[in-house]
Amino acid sequence: MKEYWHSVDLEKEKCNGCTICLRRCPTEAIRIRDGKAKIIKERCIDCGECIRVCPYHAKKAFADDLSSIEKYKFKIALVSLPLYGQFKLNKDINRVFNCFYELGFDMVYDVAFAADIATSLQSDILKNNSTKPLIATLCPAIIRLIQIRFPSLIDHIINIESPMEIAARLAKEKASKEYCLNINDIGAFYMTQCPAKITSIKKPLGIKKSYVDGAIPIKSIYTKLIKIYDEVKKDDKIQQASGDGIGWARVGGQSFSLDMDKYLAVDGIENVINVLEEIELGKLNNIDFFEGYACVTGCVGGPLNVENPFVAKNRIRQLSQKYGKRSLEKEDVNKLIKDVDIEWTEEIEPLSILKLDQNIEKAIEKMELIEKIDKQLPGIDCGCCGAPNCHAMAEDVVKGTACLEDCIVMLRKKADK
Question: Is residue 295 within 8 Å of 303, Cβ to Cβ?
Fold first, then answer.
């Protein structure tokens, strides 16, 4: 299998093998071996749940720091949707956006406005598509989850880019024309709320190459923005999104912006998995649109944010009401995107996470062996063997990465004999 680049990494020296991440990983991508956690790359979807729950901060996300922008002649800050919810409502969000000039950026672009554009595009697709339900593309962790665990639903995914990508393309196009710059001299950096966004930049799905050049965690710049807020000199009108676009930061925001009745908005990776299972079984054909988020509360719940996700969600709700609805005319949208591609150009291929053997007959034999071993195991899913459950343990035994005696119950039985 082609190796997949991941933004989530483990610092082994900090890990004490506590099994918390093992139990919380939604795709069973973590094992405990020799007293340390190990991430199985082909299973990981970079949702960041392990980063969130690790009490020893042994998981981290590969990301850019502020100095990375110096590699480019012209620097663009893509202010993300969750950033709206990170500051108290008495802070002028447009002033916050202008702070990015003080940090060394030459242009600041409101990604929530790109969400307004995406709303218009999605609305047209929903009107003219018979596939039910269509699946939103805002959360890259969910798209990769579908690629790994629900490949039959790939055709349900709306094939337009996320607001992050749309914003990067529009901002670069604008900078190139206004300042007569070569596109290669322009660096667009996304202020990210989660590691899944970082992965989607390095290894995008649906397109060959991302227009975004790097991702800076909101955590790493938040304090800098607070410090310079009162001293900022510029007062450009950067905030241009409607309440609908801002609302994309919380669960249900996309559906609300589309004025839909037959939709389902789900947050929390385990909840999303349960609903996708029902969609795959054809039990939810009565809904037209599904938006799923790996993080509880939506993007405002991302592990690289700073604010309590429920507080941030409430702020987003109030800001959505404050800025209200604004329907972009189709002609205006077409003018904005006429010089940029916003549709996917590449097919998303299913990824097998349990490839037992190249030979189909041997693979079937190994699957049967997994079931046989699973029946021998106690079924208590204690995690003491270093696998999240007994079935995963059986898979590891067949793949040769574990042995039956790793299970303390099996070891006890052997010792009794």
Answer: yes
Question: In which band, very low, low, confident or very high, does the pLDDT at 27 lie, cut at 50, 70 and 90?
Answer: confident
Q: pLDDT tens across 190-231, in order?
A: 999 999 999 999 999 899 999 999 999 999 999 999 999 999
All residues at 6 or more sequence positions from 249 whose CB lies less than 8 Å from its CB, including other chains:
81, 82, 84, 85, 112, 298, 299, 300, 312, 316
pLDDT digits (tens, 9 = 90+) for 109-146: 999 999 999 999 998 899 888 888 999 989 999 999 99
Torsion of CA 31, 32, 36, 40, to 10 degrees: -10
Q: How far is CA 33 from CA 149, 332, 378, in A?
A: 25, 56, 20
d(CA 172, CA 47): 28
Taking phi over 0 as left and psi of -120 to 50 as alpha, with beta for the rest, 403 belongs to: beta
All domains of the chain, ordered by start, with CATH? 1-62 (3.30.70.20), 66-337 (no CATH), 356-417 (1.10.15.40)
Mean per-residue pLDDT, 314-327: 91
- C-alpha distance from residue 53 to each of 48, 119, 307, 351, 353 (Å): 9, 33, 16, 27, 24
Q: Are 81 and 115 in contact (CB under 8 A)?
A: yes
More confident residue, 262 or 414: 262
CA distances from 35 to 17, 27, 45, 399 (A): 5, 21, 23, 20
How far is 21 from 84, CA to CA, in rounded Å?
A: 29
The C-alpha atoms of residue 198 and residue 191 are separated, in whole angstroms, by: 10
Question: First-to-last CA distance in the chain?
Answer: 41
Chain-centroid distance of CA 253 in Å reads 16
Dihedral, CA of residue 336, residue 157, residue 2 and residue 53, to nearest 10: 100
Longest dimension (CA), the chain: 80
Task: State residue 131's pLDDT score.
Answer: 87
Whether the model pTM is above 0.90: no
